[in-house]
Amino acid sequence: MSRRSELASPASANQKQAEMSAVVTSSPAAAAAAAPTKQRRRRVERKPRVAIAITAIFFVLLYLPIAVVVLFSFNSQKSLTVFKGFSFRWYDEFFHDHDMIASLGMSLKVSAVAMVGAIVIGVALALGMVRARSWLGSYAGFIMLIPLITPEIVTGVASQLLFKGFYIHLSTTTVIVAEITFSISYVTVILRSRVAALNPELEEAAMDLGATRWQALRLVTLPALMPAILASAVLIFALVFDDFVLAYFTTGVTPEPLSVRIYSQIRNGVRPSINAVGTLMLVGSIGLIALALVIPRFFGRKGGLDILSGE
Amino acid sequence: MTAIDAATLSPSAAADCPAVRLDRVSKSFGAPRSAAGNGFAVRDVSLDIAAGEFFSLLGPSGCGKTTSLRMIGGFADPTEGSILLDGRDVTGLPPNQRNVNTVFQSYAVFDHLTVADNVAFGLKRQGVARGEIRKRVGAMLDLVQMGAMADRRPRTLSGGQRQRVALARALVCRPRVLLLDEPLGALDLKLRRAMQVELKQIQREVGITFIFVTHDQDEALTMSDRVAVMNGGVVEQCGTPEDVYERPASTFVASFMGTSNLMDGVYRDGSVAITGGPTIAVGDRGLRAGCAVSVSVRPEKIWLSEHEPQMVRIPGTVAETVYSGPTTTYLIEIAPGVTVSALEQNTDRSRNEERWVNGARVELGWRPEHCLVLESAPADQSSLVAA
Amino acid sequence: MWNWLALPGTLWMSAFFLLSLALVLLLSFGTTDNNFNPHFGTSLANVKALVDDAYLKVGLRSLVYAALTAVICLVVAYPVAYAIALYGGRFKNALIAAIVVPFFANYLVRMFGWSVLLGDDGPILKAGRKLGLPASFHILNTNTGVILGLVYGFIVFMVLPLYAALERMDVSLIEAGRDLYGGPLRTFLTVTVPATRQGALAGLVLVFLPAVGDFVSAQLMGGPDQYMIGNLIQQKFFEGNNQPLGSALTMVLMLVLLVGMIGYLRRARKDEQDAVR
User: Do C123 and A68 touch (CB under 8 A)?
Assistant: First the structure.
């Protein structure tokens, strides 16, 4: 439905542009006969069509794997490629699989704790980084970018060695600590531009009215940042919940986070219940992320990707 | 709404102690809004502002007026000099420890609180009892005519309404001094005029000192008890609106306050030879012969008809007439390249019913005391102490 | 006050990264004992082992895969970003969200779906065979498969910067270019590309760097002949139990990427400073 309207508006835009080019070029190009002008019009119309076609195919390919997983999670047969009938059996199997449920619980716990930790540290870091005019501020800005461009495997290896090197056993806690570290970067990136865009007179007004610097922060600045904070909290929850590589390297024996368990299952021979788990995870994550993008709307601000504009 | 009663004054405030004193205050580079050429946003400024005064800091962008205001409020610290409130040195004290409140240029109304909560903010910080808060907030909102909007969110308010909220929020704390940073700049003309009147009324009713920053000289003239005209970080003149307008101390002040018809020339023996123009009799001004001066006569002081006997008279030709409703401005050439503007009211009362048209020969006249002679040397950085 | 706020986060991140990376470096020179426990040491054995042909081959393969992925992403993402930015109209935000949201949903599950899709029994090859593809044509377990997996996994990091750059671009430039240059392709190359150069560059970096270290794609979409550095590292840490060698491999990966990272960080810092101050 959206694709059709996509095709509708560019088409009318094309027409206008074709007319424009025809008008503009027909006069200076004195020798231009009708033929070259018609050619130009056709060419102008063709190129965006190609781009739009590619976009359409892109969207199809993007969602096709998701569709496959979702579709086959309802497959009544074991096959992963032939859909035989509609059934909930794989969901049933998932919910009765104690190990799976334990992993689910572990993932939820890790995500929740990591979310809180990352928000607390990340918000403070974002505020300090933007406002502090000191070497610490610049250094903070530098160091928080590192996790974002490091390949996850390096972060994974490094984290595992960090724990093992200090004789800390890998467990739920180590996963949480590693995930917090990674998430702090995301929180800071998202909040950095929000903090910079805040009206500095707000805090001054608070202090003018008798608040101390900390009170001004608590009573004025944080409420002003609340939409961004909430949105990034939800985002972090989803990211941590889905995260695989880092969890893989830092988790203890059992229960593993859900994504790690899925990975082992995929490697050890596929069971169709993976589709069920996968579908649940996808639905959950997509729902959460979409929610995060919409949260600012509840505060009367524009929602959408402005939140991510830090990247 | 009662005026601030004597009981709220601090014991050290004697009748002759200024409410605000800036003592040789300077603020150098690194200040967020510096613009003066030598790296000083504010240079060696001293001002005394009396209690209950409506005092304006006036000047072009970057003259240091906002920086000065911020230093009084505690949002910036002076590099040199000190700031005293009611005789008490507050230099270095943070804003929350000064008995001063501010209405910010952006109003800085808290979007996440209702109007009433905004106004109550400062009182809550002071620890005032809840019942008392409700009473005072209600009274203050009525004063600024926002009583009906107490439960609204700022996002639904217009610019003018948010400004009133900011004003109420600051006044309810009963400060000794209220600082206003170009509060009317964002309003349209009609609203601005209305607010000017209202602010003046509120100030009189509440009775506290207002320090008002603006770049609009009209505004400063109409509202203030006294004005300090600033330029390049320095106070060029400080006095009543009439002082500043009728008796400007420097060419900058003369030209900043309205049209001034400045003409450069050389003074000699009671006359000024205008560069490229006629010689004008100005009387003995006590200046040494040969010194470079600027001569200024306000347009409204120039008569085009019915001259009085002792007036100085200069012939000229009308180059342009600009009709603006109640008045007409005539641009008159008194010498090639030297134009003077004269302002006449369109009263139709003059015996010469004709309106002077382009090309007409006219005679300009003014009383000798209305002709200002200012030395052309750049104004020195002398601090001006208020009268 | 601001310094105090920034302190905990900075300390945490510094401790974590500086310490952990230091440990990785140190362990590279370590050894394993008979029980497969790693120890720190000063052995250069791992470093020497790395120079082996097999490892070099894998390293080169990783770089090539990542480079191809980046280029393919650029070629595919450009029209998509272009179409949405310039012709998306009211639906621009929704369209971009529709791309971004699934990408930040579960990577593993999506790759799994992708591998099923492209598998021998998957719908695409089945349809392809009906249309005449030979039965021996595979996608999985080939270079193509892994690269397709990488592209699928990382293309969003190319779409976003390109989209942002295209959005910011002055559209009248294109119209002016059309008048001057005539053909839409020429206009694109001479006007649009230079104007969005920064975005394209950012995208290339953002795709290339993580792709080099990826192991999921090679695992799900390829076989041992397609293994990348990431897979080797994973093996050493989880199966081969040769963590010092794994560390050494990680170090090499880091060093090779360090150049790219430093360059990107420098530019990111400059942009941030310009924006914030």
Answer: yes
Q: Do A48 and C83 touch (CB under 8 A)?
A: yes
Task: Judge whether C103 and C249 are in contact, CB under 8 Å.
Answer: no
Q: What is the largest CA-CA distance in chain C?
A: 74
Domain that holds residue C118: 52-276
Are A204 and B75 in contact (CB < 8 Å)? yes
- Which residues on adjacent β-strands are paired with residue B85? B20, B88
- Which tens digits make up the pLDDT trace of B65-80? 999 999 999 999 999 9
Task: Yes or no: say if B294 and B263 are a contact pair by the CB < 8 Å rule.
Answer: yes
Domains in chain C, number? 1
Nearest CA-CA distance, residue B206 and chain A, Å: 18
Residue B234 lies in a domain: yes
The pLDDT of residue B282 is 85
Top-confidence residue, C84 or A76: C84
Strands B271-274, B234-239: pairing is unpaired
ipTM above 0.85 for this complex: no
Instruction: Indicate yes or no: CB of B125 within 8 angstroms of CB of A223.
Output: no
Domain with residue B309: its CATH number is 2.40.50.100
Domain membership flag for residue C201: yes
Residue type, A120: V
Instruction: Compare A205 and A72 and report the one with higher pLDDT.
Output: A205
Domain extent for B242: 6-99+175-246
Segment C14-33 mean pLDDT: 81
In the prediction, which pLDDT does B360 show? 85
- Tally of domains in chain B: 2
Domain termination site, one of B216, B246, B276:
B246
Q: Does A252 touch chain C (CB under 8 A)?
A: no
Chain B neighbors of A220, CB-CB under 8 A: 110
Task: Find chain C residues with C-beta within 8 A of A54's C-beta.
Answer: 76, 79-80, 83
Query: What mean pLDDT do residues A207-223 have?
Result: 92
Q: At what angle do helices A273-298 and A89-96 cross, to 10 degrees?
A: 90
Test mutation, A12, A154, A170, A250, chain C, max C CBs within 10 A: A154
Query: C1 lies in a domain?
Result: no
The pLDDT of residue A9 is above 60: no
The overall pTM is greater than 0.80: no
Cβ separation of A208 and B112 shorter than 8 Å?
Answer: no
If asked whether residues B37 and B92 sit together in one domain, one would say yes
Q: Which CATH number is C126's domain given?
A: 1.10.3720.10
Touching status, chains B and A (3+ beta-carbon pairs under 8 Å): yes
What pLDDT band is residue B377 in, cutting at 50, 70 and 90? low
DSSP string, A140-160: HHHHTTHHHHS-HHHHHHHHH
- For residue B129, being part of any structural domain is answered with no
